[in-house]
């Protein structure tokens, strides 16, 4: 498996929605980690272009992450929430978007990844059917599934997953849960607890993600049984990332994070701002419909530099993110990890 071949046990989180770029993916892979390219929100043609750009920058292995399609939400549920956003639209001078359900170009992307295979294809928001996994295995790709609970892990391994990305509640961005439970706001399982539970339940390699920003954090999850650590927020301030200025500003701040469905209709963790605080209680489970409703507001706010209307996805340790080139960051993290593991071993050997 590729996890056993990586010079550095660091995986780049996909970072869909803007921060993911071919330059960032390639930089992490060139530095000895595994760079991932986000396919979420892209058409298959746009993904093809980004794959071509990435392959022109590196010959090292890369991964691609796909969103597993969900189910449509009742139109009246979305309409009730949208009606409450009229003042927000007037304030920013942008119309609300049209709510619609779509599958994120699911089949064409799968076709592309069987025509142009990559080392790893990972999945978020669910587990693909066994025949999809077999199809990707047939072209030589490993299949990873992101899980947030023990039962999801068992299901994914049963479907044929080669490895699991274990996402703790500390993680920034969308929760990868197979089903977005309306009763779940902030009670997800923390990473170290979840690693232990999943490691006890299944025997495949694990990649830990959620709140990891330093080599000490990487060392901690390796000691807990992970084969590698996946970091996303830690790379948001790198120059290769497509992170917009307001998002960079928020990541560098000391403002805490919170869970919300206000921006997209799916539970996600981001830096707190006015929109998150005022609309989280009203936001229903309705993804991607609400994502499309708020998209014009968020676009206008990003252009205006208005932090209060933008989804500022970030993990709980976002204040530790460093503004350095991605390849340099991988090297720093590798040295910090070695030092942390050496120090821990020395402490264990004391009489």
CATH architecture assignment name of the largest domain? Alpha-Beta Barrel
Superfamily at the CATH H level of the largest domain? Aldolase class I
Give the strand line-up of the largest sheet: 1-9-8-6-5-4-3-2
What is the tally of beta strands? 11
Report the principal-axis shape: globular
Give helix and strand order, one letter per element, not per position.
Answer: EHEHEHHHEHEHEEHEHEHEEHHH
Just give the CATH class of the largest domain. Alpha Beta
Rounded Rg: 19 Å
Distance between the termini: 38 Å
Q: Please give the largest β-sheet.
A: 8 strands, parallel
Structural class label: alpha/beta
Protein name: Propionate 3-nitronate monooxygenase
GO molecular function, one term: monooxygenase activity
Family: Belongs to the nitronate monooxygenase family. NMO class I subfamily.
Pfam family, one: NMO
Q: Your description of this structure?
A:
Helix 9 (215-223) packs across helix 13 (326-349). The chain is of the alpha/beta class and 351 residues long. The chain has an eight-stranded parallel β-sheet with strand order 1-9-8-6-5-4-3-2. It is built from 13 helices and eleven strands. It has two domains: 1-69 and 104-242 and 321-351, TIM Barrel, CATH 3.20.20.70; 73-102 and 244-319, no CATH class. It starts with 9 loop residues before the first strand and ends with a helix.
Brief synopsis:
It holds the Pfam family NMO. With 351 residues, the protein is an alpha/beta fold.
Question: What are the main properties of this structure?
Answer:
351 residues, 13 helices, 13% strand, globular, 11 strands, alpha/beta, TIM Barrel, 2 domains, single chain
């Amino acid at each position: 498996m590729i996890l056993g071949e990586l010079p550095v046990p660091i995986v780049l989180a996909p970072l869909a929605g803007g921060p993911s770029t071919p330059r960032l993916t390639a930089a992490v892979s060139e530095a000895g980690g595994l760079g991932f390219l986000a396919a979420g929100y892209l058409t298959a043609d746009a993904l093809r272009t980004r794959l071509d750009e990435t392959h022109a920058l590196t010959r090292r292995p890369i991964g691609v992450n796909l969103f597993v399609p969900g189910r449509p939400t009742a139109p009246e549920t979305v309409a009730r929430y949208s009606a409450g956003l009229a003042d927000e639209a007037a304030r920013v001078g942008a119309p609300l978007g049209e709510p619609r359900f779509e599958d994120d170009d699911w089949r064409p992307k799968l076709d592309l990844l069987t025509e142009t295979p990559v080392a790893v294809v990972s999945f978020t928001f669910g587990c693909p059917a066994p025949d999809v996994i077999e199809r990707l295995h047939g072209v030589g790709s490993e299949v990873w599934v992101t899980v947030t609970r023990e039962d999801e892990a068992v299901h994914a391994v049963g479907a044929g997953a080669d490895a699991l990305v274990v996402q703790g509640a500390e993680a920034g961005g969308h929760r990868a849960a197979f089903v977005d439970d309306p009763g779940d706001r902030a009670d997800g399982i923390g990473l170290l607890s979840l690693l232990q539970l999943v490691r006890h339940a299944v025997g495949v390699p694990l990649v830990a993600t959620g709140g990891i920003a330093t080599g000490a954090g990487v060392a901690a999850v390796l000691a807990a049984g992970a084969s590698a650590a996946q970091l996303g927020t830690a790379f948001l301030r790198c120059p290769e990332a497509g992170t917009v200025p307001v998002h960079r500003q928020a990541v560098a701040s000391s403002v805490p994070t919170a869970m919300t469905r206000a921006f997209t209709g799916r539970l996600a963790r981001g830096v707190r701002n006015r929109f998150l605080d005022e609309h989280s209680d009203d936001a229903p489970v309705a993804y991607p419909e609400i994502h499309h409703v708020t998209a014009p507001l968020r676009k206008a706010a990003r252009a205006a530099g208005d932090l209060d209307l933008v989804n500022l996805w970030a993990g709980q340790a976002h204040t530790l993110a460093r503004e350095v080139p991605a390849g340099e960051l991988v090297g720093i993290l590798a040295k910090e990890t070695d030092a942390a593991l050496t120090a821990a071993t020395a402490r264990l050997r004391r009489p």
